[in-house]
Amino acid sequence: MGYSVGQVSGFAGITVRTLHHYDRTGLLSPGERSPAGYRLYSDADLARLQQILFYRELGFPLDEIATILADPQANALDHLRARHRLLTEQIATLHRLVEVAERAMEVQQTGVELTPEERFEVFGEVTFDLTYATQAHLKWQHSAGHQRSMARAAAHSKEDWAKIMAESADWRGRLIAAFEAGEPADGERATDLAEDHRQHLIRWFTPCPTDMHGRIADEFAADPRAFALIVPPGEQRPGLAPYLRTAVHANAVRRPSPTPPDTPATATPPPAAPAAP
After folding, report:
1. Any residues with CB less than 8 A from the CB of 270 and at least 6 apart, and which?
2. Helix, strand or coil for residue 133?
3. What is the domain count for the chain?
4. Do residues 210 and 198 make contact, with C-beta atoms less than 8 angstroms apart?
5. Per its UniProt record, what Pfam families does this chain match (predicted)?
6. How far is 44 from 32, CA to CA, in rounded Å?
7. 128 is in which domain, residue-wise?
8. Would you say 218 and 267 are in contact if contact means Cβ atoms under 8 Å apart?
9. Same domain, yes or no, for 250 and 117?
10. Is 214 exposed, middle or buried (0-12, 13-18, 19+ CB in 10 A)?
11. Residues 47 and 149 in one domain
């Protein structure tokens, strides 16, 4: 029993035009005729079509498929091995492109509009985990407070970021000095440092009442990626993050300023950049 071009097109999932092209090029020509003289595809033709579609799915060009099928003794395995190598290389290239695209999206989500060279020049050793920044962005993207913080971060110039980082280095040095001197975390010196940090957030990123500041400090103590926003790993000390958290909560008792009803709370530091004065 033979099959018409329309029937083959229907159950093979390819167009009549494609079958006609295969016929014209000699890749697949119907081998039977109907009583009325119409050309029909035999079972052998369908088996050949299945091979053609298999090789096409792997990306073989039609002329190479014709070469493979033209010689029944040809070693198709060699062709398949070569195609496998090529596909593996293409997959690796696509993975790299995906990583580049994801990194570009993450950079955009941090809100810092600087070139890579400017980012290195400004931030130096203080870096932020882009995965963490992206997770924070996705978590808080609908928060008005987060959107306001991102907008302000994006508006900062290179000069602004240089000021932010200079303030950050000075504050970080004072925090570490207080910690190493054994100053109590709930004492005046430590709570003053906590207040300096809160005012920095207000000045550069977002309104930050003390209860919100407490949630940010909790995040610093719970997630090393968050704490790395303000103290690079090379400068961290064991217990420094909990020390800062205690100081921030003590400062909230000392200088209470609850979140106004119209200020959406956030549990994470502004994910745009290192946020320390």
Report:
1. 146, 149, 150, 153, 201, 205, 206
2. helix
3. 2
4. yes
5. MerR_1 (PF13411), TipAS (PF07739)
6. 10
7. 111-254
8. yes
9. yes
10. buried
11. no
234 and 164 both lie in a single domain: yes
- The CATH number given to whatever domain includes residue 167 is 1.10.490.50
Per this entry, what is the length of the chain? 277
The verdict on 42 and 115 lying in the same domain is: no
248 and 116, same structural domain? Answer: yes
Give the model's pLDDT for residue 184. Answer: 96
pLDDT (tens digit per residue) in 196-238: 999 998 998 888 899 989 998 999 999 888 888 888 888 899 9
122 plus 26 within the same structural domain: no
Distance CA 62, CA 60 (A): 6
Q: What angle do CA 173, 179, 181 make, to 5 degrees?
A: 100
Query: Quick one: which of 28, 44, 79 has its CA closest to 58?
Result: 79
State the average pLDDT over residues 16-31: 91
The answer to whether residue 231 sits within a structural domain is yes
- Per-residue pLDDT at 73: 64
219-241 residues labelled b (16+ CB within 10 A) or e (exposed): bbbebebbbbbbbbeebeeeebb
* Residues 136, 232 within the same domain: yes
Q: Are residues 122 and 249 in the same domain?
A: yes
Distance of alpha carbon 273 from the chain centroid: 17
Q: Which residues, in sequence order, are CB contacts of 247 under 8 Å at separation 6+?
A: 185, 186, 190, 191, 193, 194, 217
Is it the case that residue 95 has pLDDT exceeding 90? no
pLDDT band (50, 70, 90) for residue 116: low
Asked whether residue 90 is domain-assigned, the answer is no
Give whole-number Cα distances, 160 to 55, 107, 155, 249, in Å. Answer: 58, 18, 9, 29
Q: What is the CATH number of the domain that holds 12?
A: 1.10.1660.10
pLDDT of residue 81: 81
